[in-house]
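Cont'd.
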Amino acid sequence: MFISGGLTGIFLGNSAIDIQLHDTYFVVAHFHIVMGIAAFFGMFAGIYNWFPKMFGRFMNETLGKIHFWGTLVGAYAIFWPMHYTGMAGVPRRYYSIDNFDSFRHFVDLNKFITVAAIVVFFLQVLFIINFFYSIFSGRKMTTKNPWGANTLEWTTPIKAGHGNWPGNIPAVQRWPYDYGKDGEEFVPQYVPLKEGEHDHGH
Ligand code: HEM
Ligand code: HEM
């Protein structure tokens, strides 16, 4: 998302090209992809990832996949066509474009965008249903670290009590990205560095 939205930022940053693109739907397309969609997918990822940490249960994977793929395709269906209307000069912040002969042929495309936005909206309702349904009825967590993550929050008991860790609090010994290192699928952060091992974090 940062690439597909950021690349159009490069065009906008070129002042000669921006004489045409400024205040058009190209800008609206640019910033929604780069900050709107990107931020939302970051939040989705965080929620799906830490949900089991919060509630001891997983969100429903099938609903999650429908939500993810539907929203991914749907979000681009909403914002991708805006690049074209923007390049053709359709201005932003106009109540309606069908008064203008030069833009009237975009009305159907605008309707398509509206339908895509409605579909994407209902997919978010599905996400919210999945969220609350899974709090009570999701598949239960049986291991502490289901994703094979390196960070310390996955070392607490599934039902963490007061203070989060019984006994000693684990300490960070290495950066959190030691995946696929020395034949290990993942090396948690509490594992001390071996003799001569280089810590990427410093
Ligand atoms: C390579 C990266 C980026 C470049 C070169 C870039 C460049 C630009 C330029 C030149 C404009 C003004 C276009 C115009 O009105 O004529 C613009 C608009 C905008 N950009 Fe970016 N951008 C980049 C990334 C981002 C990011 C990461 C965000 C937010 C997370 C962002 C948010 C916005 C917003 C909100 C507007 C519209 C502001 C308004 O309402 O007028 N852009 N961008
Ligand atoms: C599917 C969800 C969304 C849809 C369909 C949508 C649609 C739109 C449209 C059509 C405009 C242009 C209005 C105009 O120029 O007349 C707009 C403006 C804008 N949107 Fe969104 N948007 C969505 C989500 C978001 C999100 C998540 C953010 C921020 C993270 C965002 C931030 C903005 C901003 C800053 C403007 C510019 C307002 C202005 O021109 O003063 N939008 N949105």
